[in-house]
Amino acid sequence: MSDSSVRSTTRNGGEISHPLFATLYELSPQGFLLAPHREYLADDLSGRVLDLGCGTGDMFPFVADAAGDDLEYHAVEPDPHMRTRAAERAREVGLPVDLRGDRAEALPYPDDSFDVVLSGMVFCTIHDPDAALAEVARVLKPGGEFRFLEHVHADGWQGTGQELLNPVWKRVAGGCQLTRETVPRFVGHEAFSVAEIERLEFGIFPATPFVRGTLCRRRGGLVG
Ligand SMILES: C[S@@+](CC[C@H](N)C(=O)[O-])C[C@H]1O[C@@H](n2cnc3c(N)ncnc32)[C@H](O)[C@@H]1O
Prior knowledge:
Distance between the termini: 42 Å
Strand order of the largest sheet: 1-4-3-2-5-6-8-7
CATH topology: Rossmann fold
CATH class: Alpha Beta
Bound molecules: S-adenosylmethionine
Largest sheet: 8 strands, mixed
Mean pLDDT: 91
Strand content: 15-25%
Structural class: alpha/beta
CATH superfamily: Vaccinia Virus protein VP39
Helix content: 25-40%
Order of helices and strands: EHHEHEHEEHEHHEE
Low-confidence stretches: 10-14
Number of domains: 1
Shape: globular
Number of strands: 8
């Protein structure tokens, strides 16, 4: 596979940069826990697909395995340390990826340009998740799918523990927040209907529980 099959560009000003987190993320032993959920995200992908905040490219092997002939894969990853590893991973698994350094809050694509947008543990970290969700709605074609796997704010004592830990956690975990209320944010957005959503009690405290699901971009005019 030639280098030209991974296109990497950086736009939109200041970069997010967490070299230590990028190294630790790549070495993390979480892979076997996440594998079935990555298979869900990658299932039967076709057309133009965007991987939001692709990190070190952990989705790429799953996408390469499940890809149809007409797949055109794009990814954004603003952290250059993550992005370099993602480019290497794409080459290793033979997945052509148009990889860019933009943030989810300001995607460099026209309206209605993707069939599927994927998000794997990204809405915990994005600085402005409402702006990012509006961008997902904008770039998805009507009827297109937003597939996600995200860890969210827990209930009860675990939720209280997350609130206490969050100030330290976000410093050591590349900006990841433990207390994001991602389900109401997603379910309440008028540009989407919920195809499926499931709460998953896997993972290790404090980054648990998870939600996994698919939203469909409504047909008709976009709001906002
Ligand atoms: C926990 S990692 C998840 C990586 C990957 N999606 C996966 O499934 O393993 C979160 C990623 O989101 C990226 N990120 C942070 N802020 C972002 C933003 N505003 N837009 C897009 N990605 C962002 C981080 O650099 C990091 O690579």
